[in-house]
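# nightly structure sweep
# worker-07 picked up a monomer target from the shared queue
# config: single-sequence mode, recycle default, output format = structure tokens
# input follows
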Amino acid sequence: MVELQNVSVTYAGGVDALNNVSLKINDGDFAFVVGSSGAGKSTMIKLLLKEIDATSGVVTVNGYNLSKLKKRKIPEFRRTLGFVFQDFRLIPSMTVYENIAFVLRVLDAPLKYIRKRVPYVISLVGLHAKTNSYPDELSGGEKQRVAIARALVNDPQLIIADEPTGNIDPELSYEIVELLKGINDQGTTILMVTHEHDLVRHFGGRIINITGGEIVYDEVLTGTNAELLPEVELAQAMENAEVQQSDEYSMPAGDGSDYGNPYVDDVIAAITNTSNDNGGVE
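# output follows
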């Protein structure tokens, strides 16, 4: 569950990014967050990731009161989340398998679990044939599917997707949202930030509009063609993924620092208590 109670955020210099915002997203919900640049969407995401603190009010995510959460507890909290970056942030020197497995390695997951879980989520997003491909061998839509699989691999309660269709072809955007909808059908809460109103109109559902740091609209709408990924189809994909799991792959040794890529730090920051972002009003 996500709940904001009378939350305000004021940045240095007196800039009000959020103003007395109250919001509740229940477990299992799928919600679109829309708004223009500078409306406060990015500030809300940073609050939910515990990258910044509220100036006032209470922020609760997955049972954690972020207003009182101690720094040493942040990694534990972030393990309940999955985050999908707009620009993918795949590590170029890692294969699809390695990019996804890296999250579990950072969390010190057992190798046996990694070898079982990673092929499962790869097949779930329809990329089994691309397991050993590198990012530069993938299309934009395939890269975003890898990013979604990486967010899903730790079996999070909540996935936050920040403009997940912003860097892919428009016709592929619908496939990505359908994939997220299918994941949501299995019980994962999804919060998707987007500026693409055509997508929102097409799929419908709960729409939260932020303008000037305030929620000006929060309603459930019927989509113009809300034809979601059928639950039975996703269930079949899950069954196929289990069949395709393999114990033959072994991860390279090391903690990822030997890959020498800034995206390594970004991925680690998304699941630990470090951040490369100093904040800003968006």
